[in-house]
Design goal:
Elements (H helix, E strand, L loop, with lengths): L2 H13 L5 H15 L3 E6 L3 E7 L3 E7 L7 E2 L9 H11 L5 H13 L12 H20 L10 H13 L9 H19 L12 H18 L6 H18 L7 H10 L5 H14 L5 H13 L1
Antiparallel strand pairs: 1-2, 2-3, 3-4
Length: 303
């Protein structure tokens, strides 16, 4: 999640306690604009949030995450924050956390006269879906499929992708490595879906090679770090996804197949767990493509 967005959320709670009718009315109006799909996010980075809101007229908003810089809106409101700014914030924040639940916590904190500092646990399943969606979208953007321009040169392409995913780095430091693993893996898959092997230059690494290098680095760094309690949800989802890729991929003589197998084998806390899962899969394996995958997994396990 964008750390600046979290800090701005805390600032809103400080500056606008929901203890008055006017404050609650402002929130209701902003939610109304957001729920009616009147908000358009133009750009969201660590410094600013730009967007438009279609109210009685189209309003242009700039939210500056630095507290020393004033936010702006083209409306005539003289309040510290207007309904258009709040609606734009809701649209950006809802990509990571439920706005409705956040407002409930905001109201409760206001009533108790204490600021809620996001000590609640992250809904990791929602977060994971957001990570996957953003990694795939970021890869598509730098591939130029969505009209955002092409990046010529493999390293420039990879750097552009890395800059994009860093804008969504989780606030919880314990989740950062997991986020990078998810991002590089799903980014790599998106590249494989679109990369033409015949166009890969012999003088440069292919785009996928950079992704694979950083995926390996993130996996090995994660193995040496303390695993957060809610990590198992992410690891389970990745195991299921890569297991499917291992056992249904007909191209098991090509580069992609051993990568899927290697990645799957790294998603277990111990060799004992991994061997138990391979044994279980051997009992339920029914199709011809599963057998070479299991043989390859045993080869990795015994090296």
């Amino acid at each position: 999640m964008n750390k600046s967005l979290i800090e701005f959320a805390q600032k809103i709670q400080t500056d606008l306690p929901l203890t008055t009718d006017s404050a609650n009315k402002l929130v209701d109006e902003a939610m109304g604009l957001y729920r009616q799909y009147r908000v358009q996010i133009l750009e969201n980075n660590e410094k600013n949030l730009f967007g438009n809101v279609r109210d009685q007229e189209k309003e242009s908003i700039v939210i500056n995450f630095k507290p020393t810089i004033k936010n702006s809106c083209s409306c005539s409101s003289e309040e510290p924050i207007c309904r258009h700014q709040l609606a734009l914030f809701f649209a950006a924040f809802d990509r990571y956390q439920s706005v409705t639940k956040w407002i409930e916590r905001w109201k409760l904190a206001s009533e108790q006269n204490e600021l809620h500092h996001f000590s609640y646990s992250v809904d990791i399943e929602v977060e994971l879906n957001n990570w996957i969606w953003f990694a795939e979208e970021a890869a598509r953007r730098v591939l130029g499929r969505n009209g955002f321009g092409n990046y010529y040169g493999e390293y420039n392409f990879f750097s552009a992708f890395t800059r994009e995913i860093q804008t969504r780095m989780p606030v919880d430091p314990g989740l950062e490595n997991l986020y990078l693993i998810v991002s590089f893996y799903f980014g790599l898959k998106e590249i494989w879906l679109n990369e033409d092997p015949e166009t890969v230059s012999t003088y440069y690494k292919s785009k996928s090679e950079y992704f694979l290098e950083y995926l390996e680095s993130a996996v090995y760094s994660y193995a040496e770090a303390q695993i957060p309690e809610n990590a198992e949800v992410v690891l389970k989802r990745l195991r299921e996804e890569t297991q499917l890729a291992c056992f249904t991929n007909k191209d098991y003589l090509l580069q992609k197949w051993p990568v899927y197998c290697w990645f799957w084998s790294e998603l277990f806390a111990s060799s004992k767990e991994r061997r138990a899962e391979i044994d279980r899969l051997q009992l339920v394996a029914k199709d011809v493509f599963t057998k070479p995958a299991l043989m390859f997994l045993w080869t990795i396990e015994n090296e």
